[in-house]
Amino acid sequence: MGGDFDHRWSQVREAVAVMKELWTKDEAEFHGRYYNFPPVRCNPKPVQQPHPPVILGGLAKNVLRRVATWADGWMPNRITPAELENSRKVLDNLAAELGRDPASITISVYGQPPDRDLVRSLLNAGADRVVVRPEHVATEREMGQQLENMAEAVLR
Fold first, then answer.
1. 149 and 90, same structural domain?
2. CATH of the domain at 109
3. Looking at the predicted structure, is the pLDDT value of residue 86 above 90?
4. Is 86 helix (H, G, I), strand (E, B) or coil?
5. Which residue in 8, 32, 6 sits closest to 19, CA to CA?
């Protein structure tokens, strides 16, 4: 798809810079390694100001530094409460070092089973939100029942 896999994070960072230019300026241009375009207009603009939040996912070695440097949030997948608590501390320290308010960086944990105690533990460990995952099912009726069971498990 044209990606530079060996330098994917450099390409993602540049793509985010491009999007921020397009989202925040009436007329934007960009001249980088991966993206290069003359002055253009991009409309409609996002409702969120100054732009939609940029959320980086994953558990890569440098993801927390990337989040603290140029993103608005982090979305780890299937992380334990202990790992999350440690990562929240690291992220807060990195943000403070960079002159950012640590509270301005969100954590959205993704892909957890619908377990109320686990969800509560993740929230207590520093998550702003937790997204639970359904299992694959064959029918709409089965999914409806699964979602009811999930809501009961998490909200009871």
1. yes
2. 3.20.20.70
3. yes
4. helix
5. 32
